[in-house]
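Quick one:
INPUT:
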């Protein structure tokens, strides 16, 4: 087979993919040509059938699972000068299957089975990109292979599927509800609709929310622990016990007492390591905008606040607001309970939230106020900004956050963005890891 022939084969695969994505009607010529290519390179014809899931493919042809894994990861792509044209045709056929199954999401109503199948296929696409299943949808800005664009697109597709599903009817049927895989899109729908649910449907909704909270918490907790370091408090004298003895320093500081005649080192002073950490609790006041545009942030921040609340010597307070403010501090250790008490949607009234937050500042120098919002205040911008300036000048570490989303995508009021920059506190925007980093720097 010549290089030109392999090139044309690959083009057939790609043209067929494009045709299927942009039109529901089959192009008989492309279908026939694609089938000939697939059969000639020893791949199953079911790769061309978008109704056949990737799970079904790998169950029938287990060896293909290894080929799908990392198929499109940058580190696995051969250099242009060493690529085998025949291998590239095979890679194109497998990639086309993944892309068609995920991006041809169809139209009309969606069943729980269809959503579960799409989520599984999307997981295979994430694996092909070198990521864990669900990671691009959950961490769209953090994936090295997929990037923010892919994560955001997958999230939008999943959100569209969820919105087309008769969710209340699905939740009322335990068998159908068990097929659902919790995701940010699904949790958003559940949180918005929770007041309309009751009985079995409400119980299933709570179970899905709990599962999602636990999964995200496990990921965020790992990120917090990886950067969890605190400064040693050197104002506290080291405890003079054997386990704290600094042997190297003790020898070094007593070298002048070395006796050549006796061949002995006479020690007249022992040195101990400082191990005491700060004893003053650090206070975090987390204020979260729960208006309709901040769903991702609400979910991630409540979970993140609960993780920091579990750290020693960290006093966390949590406030959510739209046109009114609610103090969620009593439930800060349980993000599941926090989310059930939120009321997503509505407008913004930052000054009301600030009025609730300011009395919580006891020691400004030992307090950080994290404010998560898109900062669209609709008439209250200047009063909120003035109060923020006053809080910062009092000694509080003010951290404005444009989003704590999975995808890193956000919109921040340009008026506030420029003023925060002039104030020397630029908006933290992007992946949740950025906020983790800022908070750990404060706690250290």
């Amino acid at each position: 087979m010549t290089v030109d022939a392999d090139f044309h084969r690959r083009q057939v695969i790609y043209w067929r993919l494009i045709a299927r994505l942009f039109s529901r009607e089959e192009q008989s010529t492309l279908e026939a040509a694609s089938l000939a290519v697939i059969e000639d390179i020893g791949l199953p014809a079911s790769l061309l059938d978008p109704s056949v899931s990737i799970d079904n493919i790998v169950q029938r042809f287990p060896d293909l699972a290894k080929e799908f894994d990392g198929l499109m990861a940058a580190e696995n792509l051969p250099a242009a000068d060493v690529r085998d044209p025949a291998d590239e045709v095979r890679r194109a056929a497998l990639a086309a299957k993944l892309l068609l199954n995920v991006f041809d999401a169809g139209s009309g109503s969606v069943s729980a089975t269809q959503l579960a199948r799409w989520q599984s296929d999307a997981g295979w696409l994430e694996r092909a990109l070198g990521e864990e299943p669900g990671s691009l949808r959950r961490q769209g800005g953090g994936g090295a292979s997929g990037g923010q664009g892919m994560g955001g697109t997958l999230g939008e597709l999943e959100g569209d599927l969820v919105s087309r599903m008769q969710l209340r009817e699905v939740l009322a049927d335990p068998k159908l509800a068990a097929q659902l895989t919790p995701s940010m899109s699904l949790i958003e729908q559940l949180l918005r609709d929770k007041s309309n649910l009751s009985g079995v449907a409400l119980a299933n909704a709570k179970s899905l929310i709990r599962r999602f909270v636990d999964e995200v918490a496990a990921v965020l907790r790992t990120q917090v622990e990886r950067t969890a370091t605190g400064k040693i408090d050197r104002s506290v004298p080291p405890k003079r016990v054997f386990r704290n003895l600094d042997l190297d320093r003790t020898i070094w500081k007593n070298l002048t007492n070395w006796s050549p005649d006796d061949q002995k080192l006479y020690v007249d002073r022992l040195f101990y390591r400082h191990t005491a950490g700060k004893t003053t609790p650090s206070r975090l006041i987390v204020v979260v905008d729960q208006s309709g545009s901040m769903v991702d942030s609400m979910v991630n921040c409540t979970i993140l606040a609960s993780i920091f609340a579990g750290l020693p010597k960290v006093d966390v307070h949590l406030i959510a607001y739209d046109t009114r403010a609610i103090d969620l501090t009593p439930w800060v250790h349980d993000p599941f309970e926090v989310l059930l008490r939120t009321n997503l949607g509505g407008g913004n009234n930052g000054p009301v939230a600030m009025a609730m937050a300011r009395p919580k500042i006891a020691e400004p120098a030992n307090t950080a106020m994290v404010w998560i919002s898109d900062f669209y205040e609709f008439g209250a911008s200047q009063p909120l900004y003035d109060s923020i300036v006053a809080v910062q000048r009092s000694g509080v570490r003010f951290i404005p956050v444009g989003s704590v989303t999975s995808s890193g995508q956000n919109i921040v009021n340009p008026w506030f963005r420029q003023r925060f920059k002039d104030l020397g506190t630029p908006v933290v925007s992007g992946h949740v890891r950025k906020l983790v980093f800022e908070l750990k720097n404060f706690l250290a």
